[in-house]
């Protein structure tokens, strides 16, 4: 009986030295067996420095829940850089990220992304999501912290007649406020959604969460609501402290890692063995930042100790975890460079 080779092997005979997949990607840029990709379908300006980038993922993407985030990869000067971004569209909709031009990768996305560009993806993650059962909600956001909450609002408010959501959003000016027109339209159209805009340029300060007075005025029944907060570190620290005192229910989404007091350590010389580079770093500079500042190609993702994309083998020395202050490390251990600083001389397998 004759034997039949798989079609892929037959096709390879005609495409060598390339593979059939290489030719398929010329026709369909989303086709890849190794890396999830997406094609940009729209780039919508939000403010002078922010855009919403909508994209169509290829096979392997899992539909996101409202409030989740995903790692996005983009090629910059021939190097693939990864960052984590909250998904701003509602659950069940094609995904999008809303990006503000801050930092190398975000600025490249805002200034350089065009329809038809290909992005690299990782599946959505995160537990900053809507409660399982309907209940009154309070959303506290500042700046780009509105992004994951906007996904929740777009999911809940237009779809449920019993939605009861209060959003208190802080931004510097009306011109710098994300999604300003859409939020005003939602508040006008749906009685179950109330918007409180807090403009620091007009009031001279951000919403004060060291006491309850601002909250009492903005949302008198805030203690009876399930609350969510997202924004700058000091804003979230104050919110957590207030809710702990009041014994309330609060979920927080941070865009930066929690740093334990006194966790910086002494620093030291960091040796990147594979690239033959050395750099002195103080106790407050993470191994990831030290490597990137020295021109070393470092893997990264969320940059806050969640996704583990930055995990790197430790060859020698010890490191300090910025979240706990703990010093640890043995040769061969895998460490997260985005939340580790040098605790003396360190050698990395990079």
From TrEMBL:
Residues 268-350 form the 2Fe-2S ferredoxin-type domain. Residues 33-131 form the FAD-binding FR-type domain. One of its GO terms (molecular function) is 2 iron, 2 sulfur cluster binding. InterPro entries: 2Fe-2S_ferredoxin-like_sf (IPR036010), 2Fe-2S_ferredoxin-type (IPR001041), Beta-grasp_dom_sf (IPR012675), FAD-bd_FR_type (IPR017927), FNR_nucleotide-bd (IPR039261), MRET (IPR050415), OxRdtase_FAD/NAD-bd (IPR001433), Riboflavin_synthase-like_b-brl (IPR017938). CDD domains: fer2, FNR_iron_sulfur_binding_2. Its cofactor is FAD. SUPFAM superfamilies: 2Fe-2S ferredoxin-like (SSF54292), Ferredoxin reductase-like, C-terminal NADP-linked domain (SSF52343), Riboflavin synthase domain-like (SSF63380). Keywords: 2Fe-2S, FAD, Flavoprotein, Iron, Iron-sulfur, Metal-binding, Oxidoreductase. Signal peptide: none annotated. Gene3D superfamilies: 3.10.20.30, Nucleotide-binding domain of ferredoxin-NADP reductase (FNR) module, Translation factors. PANTHER family: NADH OXIDOREDUCTASE HCR. This is Oxidoreductase. It comes from Kocuria dechangensis.
